Automatic annotation (TrEMBL):
Domain HTH gntR-type intervals: 10-77
Gene3D superfamilies associated with the record: GntR ligand-binding domain-like, Winged helix-like DNA-binding domain superfamily/Winged helix DNA-binding domain
Record protein name field: GntR family transcriptional regulator
Keywords of this entry: DNA-binding, Transcription, Transcription regulation
Stored InterPro entries: GntR_C, TF_FadR/GntR_C, Tscrpt_reg_HTH_GntR, WH-like_DNA-bd_sf, WH_DNA-bd_sf
Source organism: Roseovarius faecimaris
One Pfam family here: FCD
């Protein structure tokens, strides 16, 4: 079956997976959104097979949910589940910041400062897509210096699960939007000072803000 050979090319499935993974992390797909295998195949210019394999892979990583072999959708997290995931993120990402600090050169710190300046501008203009993209770049510029691929992989899985809810929360909280970036300033100060403990704490606080946000939404904490 020579015509089936391209369908088994792992690079096709990997390409679809990588693209959908980024969409999830950046919240470019919405909670509860259904993903059409036919539409995705047309978009990527592939047969349905590599799309199906990518969707199944994402479902196995809990980034998508599937009710049947051909039906996939983005999870619509309850506020409690979202808060729980952000708390787990805070633990891992604080550890990643600590581990990355020795490899954050002055040039990389300067890059982080520029990205953070852009983030503040995105919040001012309420440009959620640009904010999500630069926030991802800011954080993973740090995490990929941790010299721990397994930790980065685990963080990516959590970002896939929380990205759609984070984007939705950002869009629904424009009155408090500046708070979404408030912990980056002490984080950058700690990184410049070479203070690993302070950097880990600041990163945890940055991520834990999401947990507080969703716990308030669930009525699980006071105002």
């Amino acid at each position: 079956m020579t015509d089936a050979t391209p369908l088994k090319d792992p690079s096709l499935s990997d390409r679809v997976y990588a693209d959908l993974k980024r969409r999830l992390m950046l919240g470019a797909v919405r909670p509860g959104q259904k993903l059409s295998m036919r539409k995705l195949a047309a978009e990527f210019g592939t047969s349905p097979m590599p799309v199906r394999e990518a969707l199944k892979r994402l479902a196995s990583e809990q980034a998508l949910e599937s009710e049947a072999a051909k039906a996939f959708h983005v999870p619509d997290l309850s506020p409690k589940r979202a808060a729980d995931l952000f708390e787990l993120r805070a633990l891992l990402e604080g550890a990643a910041a600590r581990a990355a600090l020795p490899r954050l050169t002055p040039a990389r710190l300067a890059k982080l400062t520029l990205i953070n300046d852009r983030l503040s501008a995105h919040l001012t203009t309420q440009d959620a897509p640009a904010y999500m993209a630069d926030n991802h770049l800011f954080h993973f510029t740090i995490y990929r210096r941790a010299d721990n691929p397994d930790m980065v992989f685990m963080i990516e899985q959590l970002w896939m699960q929380t990205g759609p809810s984070l984007r939705l929360g950002l869009e629904r909280s424009t009155d408090t939007a500046p708070q979404w970036n408030s912990e980056h300033t002490p984080l950058l100060a700690a990184l410049r000072a070479g203070d690993a403990d302070a950097a880990a704490r600041a990163m945890q606080e940055d991520i834990a803000w999401g947990a507080h946000f969703y716990r308030r939404a669930a009525g699980l904490t006071g105002p």
